[in-house]
Design a protein that fits this description.
The chain contains five helices and two strands; from the N terminus they run H-E-H-H-E-H-H. The protein has helices spanning 2-30, 37-44, 48-56, 75-82, 87-105, and strands spanning 34-35, 73-74. The chain has a two-stranded antiparallel sheet with strand order 1-2. The protein is mainly α and 106 residues long.
Length: 106
């Protein structure tokens, strides 16, 4: 009976430790600014094959570095892409808002 309780306590402790590790992993992931294909799939819910199809058609924003072969993605660009906004549209909107702000101060 005592052995059963000990095993049960170890199982409960193991589950708590795993839960804490998952929370830590999620917090670390939230702070990442650059994602690889696997992380992008996890972040967006898209399959890796879908991501590769989008890449081949140049329909998804990617980082560029001629020195590395692996594809990578800036999280902020992916967020804009998911919302249907391009980087250029966001920059134009920001410029417009700054112009309005300057005009109000004058």
């Amino acid at each position: 009976h005592q052995i059963y309780n000990s095993m049960e306590n170890e199982t409960i402790l193991s589950k708590k430790v795993l839960s804490e590790l998952k929370q830590i992993k999620n917090l670390l992931f939230e702070n990442k600014t650059v994602l690889n294909v696997e992380e992008l799939a996890q972040y967006t819910g898209l399959s890796k094959s879908k991501i590769y199809k989008l890449l081949s058609k140049k329909l998804i924003p990617t980082g560029t570095n001629a020195n590395i072969r692996q594809k990578f993605f800036y999280k902020k660009d992916i967020d804009l892409w998911l919302m249907g906004l391009s980087k250029e549209e966001l920059e134009a909107e920001e410029e417009f808002n700054q112009m309005l702000s300057r005009n109000r101060k004058s």
